């Protein structure tokens, strides 16, 4: 193999995030905001989309209940169906796909992790319902592998971006002898680090007090775990949505996904 060293700096190949993690406190309207993104398939794992209209949504738990199958089976079926329709069209049928929420996806992954362990020589006699309490935290290794398997099923199935929605988790940190509360992604241990490292941007959505306006922050600080690789998002904060008195939701997704 012959390699030629580049003589000039290459331009950036990508402007917008291809994987985006958004997290927020409960009841900030995150699901409605995500559903408003044009040509976005919202895969609802929590049943929080029942009040959202005019959107492409899979209510995973509802399907699982009606079909009397596991949530894991529904997710696999959705991914396989998208792959099939993409192949038929010779193109991507969705610009965006959203997993809402990955906090709930972690719970689903525990089931797969348990099945994975039971299929090992060590786990053949395992009778517990979950591997959460395996000695020395061994179950968390299986959790990470299971989560990656499910997550990767949807990677690359949309034209523009895979979005991950999550909850916020408050944790205590100490700075200069003072105890502070930091806002972090609600995922377990190393799994949180794996997901955070894999995405191109992490944004925190919050509501302005006493106003129907949602902000999104990509500013990194000790009190808030955020950040972004794309320059137009890095260390930025802006309005992402506002609700009019008529109930109409106005969104500003173009601030995140610039024309390319």
Largest sheet: 11 strands, mixed
Second rung of CATH, namely the architecture of the domain at 19-168 and 185-207: 3-Layer(aba) Sandwich
Strand content: 25-35%
How many helices does DSSP assign? Answer: 6
- H and E order: EHEEHHEHHEEHEEEEE
How far apart the termini lie comes to 33 Å
Question: What is the C-alpha radius of gyration, as a whole number of Å?
Answer: 20 Å
What is the overall pLDDT average?
Answer: 85
Runs in which pLDDT lies below 50 for 5 or more consecutive residues are 172-181
Total number of beta strands: 11
Note down, in words, how this protein is organized.
With 260 residues, this protein is α/β, with parallel strands linked by helices. The protein has a domain at 19-168 and 185-207: Rossmann fold. The protein is built from six helices and eleven strands. Strands 1, 2, 3, 4, 5, 6, 7, 8, 9, 10 and 11 form an eleven-stranded mixed sheet that branches. A hairpin with a 5-residue loop joins strand 7 and strand 8. The longest helix has 19 residues, at 71-89. The radius of gyration is 20 Å and the shape is globular.
């Amino acid at each position: 193999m012959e390699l030629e060293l580049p003589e000039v700096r290459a331009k950036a190949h990508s402007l917008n995030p291809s994987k985006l993690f958004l997290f927020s406190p409960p009841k900030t309207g995150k699901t409605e905001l995500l559903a408003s993104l044009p040509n976005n398939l919202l895969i609802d794992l929590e049943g929080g989309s029942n009040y959202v209209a005019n959107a492409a949504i899979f209510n995973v738990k509802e399907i699982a209940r009606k079909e009397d199958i596991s949530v894991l089976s529904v997710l696999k079926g959705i991914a396989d169906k998208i792959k099939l329709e993409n192949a038929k069209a010779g193109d991507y049928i969705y610009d965006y796909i959203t997993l809402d929420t990955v906090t709930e996806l972690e719970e689903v992954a525990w089931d797969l992790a348990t099945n994975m362990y039971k299929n090992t020589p060590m786990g053949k006699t395992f009778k517990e319902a979950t591997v959460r309490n395996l000695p020395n935290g061994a179950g968390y290794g299986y959790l990470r592998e299971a989560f990656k398997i499910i997550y990767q099923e949807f990677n690359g199935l949309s034209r523009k971006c895979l979005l991950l929605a999550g909850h916020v988790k408050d944790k205590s940190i100490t700075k200069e002898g003072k105890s502070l509360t930091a806002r972090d992604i609600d995922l377990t241990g190393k799994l949180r680090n794996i997901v955070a490292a894999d995405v191109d941007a992490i944004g925190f959505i919050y509501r302005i007090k006493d106003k129907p306006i949602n902000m999104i922050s990509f500013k990194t600080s000790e009190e808030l775990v955020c950040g972004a690789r794309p320059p137009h998002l890095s260390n930025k904060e802006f309005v992402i949505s506002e609700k009019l008195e008529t109930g109409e939701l106005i969104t500003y997704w173009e601030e995140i996904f610039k024309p390319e």
